[in-house]
């Protein structure tokens, strides 16, 4: 028996290539599908967001595994948001549970976006995004760690304010652009002539 093990090791040492290991049949099929679909970018005429990155997030996953994981995270986010909506009428009685479900839904939605966008999502977050992430972490800590309903409600309020700040940060022009749009809308409403 010991001789059989030694023979196996000798055989593997002789027939192992000095370069990187050969791709398995599943990896070979994925490479052929990718080449048929228009190169490393994915579908013809449309590039995957992580295709141009040199260090993609989770490099061991194929694009289909990323899509499946992002879909699973999106489904979990929808489930958490739906359960949080069921607790909305009981918001005063079950504020901690509502905030916990809403925060977990937000976390799953951010994970789905991070799986699709790769590390580009985390490279230069804006001030609003950083505030939202901090408020999200505080809400989860207050709900799970401290188990305090008032601190969880405070974290949820901060989360809503930070979400508004992140939305303003994401708009072209930021707050100044929003003020300009509001001014244009107000001027259009003032000049509008109502038909009799």
Automatic annotation (TrEMBL):
This is Vesicle transport protein. Belongs to the SFT2 family. It is a multi-pass membrane protein. The lineage of its organism: Eukaryota, Metazoa, Chordata, Craniata, Vertebrata. Residues 15-40 are annotated as: Disordered. Keywords: Membrane, Protein transport, Transmembrane, Transmembrane helix, Transport. One of its GO terms (cellular component) is endomembrane system. May be involved in fusion of retrograde transport vesicles derived from an endocytic compartment with the Golgi complex.
